[in-house]
Design goal:
Elements lengths: L15 E3 L1 E3 L11 E3 L2 E3 L17 E4 L2 E5 L6 H7 L3 E3 L5 E6 L5 E2 L6 E8 L11 E8 L8 E8 L4 E8 L5 E3 L2 E4 L7 E8 L3 E7 L2 H6 L5 E4 L7 E9 L7 E6 L6
Parallel strand pairs: 1-20
Antiparallel strand pairs: 2-11, 3-4, 5-6, 5-10, 7-8, 8-20, 9-10, 10-19, 11-16, 12-13, 12-19, 13-14, 14-15, 16-17, 17-18
Protein name: Probable lipoprotein
Keywords: Lipoprotein
Organism: Tenacibaculum jejuense
């Protein structure tokens, strides 16, 4: 069953992400998404056209709340409260996630701090062979002193990531401890594809969508860390302390197939 994605999510300062989440339903970007065998890739275009998921489970964790519903375009007072951390363009074709230099959220212990603005979908139980997909074009404006998390396949039961896509202080991209590239990717565009069924997680990285589509091997292909747990994709920006400077990330061409 196809799920139409009604409008799109916003563009932010300097991280540009073409995202696709997939598994049982496909949301199309004005019919430019094509099915190729068992996997679906975004078509590379000169303009941002794709729509965001019209999914009731689409929520946001940021400074104003841990579970802010953004399945519909934020408006009025909610839009105003979110604007320092999260914005969308008028057509919902892009999302922007922003961490300010001194923004932080206290953890549950009430003492330690972190900076966070992430979108997420409802968690799902493992289903062997039925891969959910997160595919994205990203562009991060700056590297930080510690690793900045850009996306996660997250175990809700364990409250820990199965895998995390991060950019380190040298601008290198990593999946957990696996280095995807030694090149400094701060300020540069790249594509990522993550597939997971709750048992295994596999990841591809490339500098263009065409290269990603042609790539046959996986840069990361491992069993999950935590078995028999419900998992979800998260994307945006997550930092283990105060960032010390402004960081932003823009997500575009987002769709789900769940």
């Amino acid at each position: 069953m196809k799920t139409s994605i009604t409008k799109n999510i916003l563009a932010f300062a300097t991280l540009s992400i073409f995202i696709s989440c997939s598994s049982e339903e496909l949301v199309t970007n004005n019919d430019i998404l094509q099915e190729q065998n068992t996997s679906n890739h975004l078509n590379e275009t000169n303009t941002i056209q794709a729509k965001t998921p019209n999914d009731k489970s689409l929520k946001l964790f940021c400074k104003i709340g841990r579970s802010v519903n953004i399945s519909k375009k934020p408006s009025g007072s909610l839009k105003k409260r979110l604007s320092p951390f999260y914005t969308e363009n008028s057509k919902r074709t892009s999302q922007t996630f922003k961490l300010g230099a001194n923004d932080f959220i206290f953890r549950k212990d009430g003492k330690t701090k972190h900076s966070r603005c992430e979108a997420f979908l409802g968690a799902q139980a493992p289903s062997r062979g039925k891969y959910k997909v997160l595919e994205a074009q990203m562009k991060v404006n700056t590297a930080l002193k510690e690793e900045l998390t850009l996306a996660q396949y997250f175990s809700v039961n364990k409250s820990k990531p199965q895998i995390a896509l991060r950019i380190d202080k040298r601008g290198r991209l990593k999946i957990n401890r696996t280095v995807l590239t030694n090149e400094n990717m701060a300020g540069k565009s790249f594509f990522i594809r993550i597939e997971a069924d709750g048992h295994k997680v596999r990841v591809k990285y490339a500098k263009s969508l065409s290269a990603l589509k042609k790539k046959r091997s996986w840069d990361y292909n491992q069993n999950v860390r935590y078995k028999n747990t419900r998992n979800q994709f998260r994307w945006g920006a997550y930092y283990n302390s105060k960032t010390g400077k402004n960081v932003s990330n823009t997500v575009t061409n987002l769709f789900t197939k769940r």
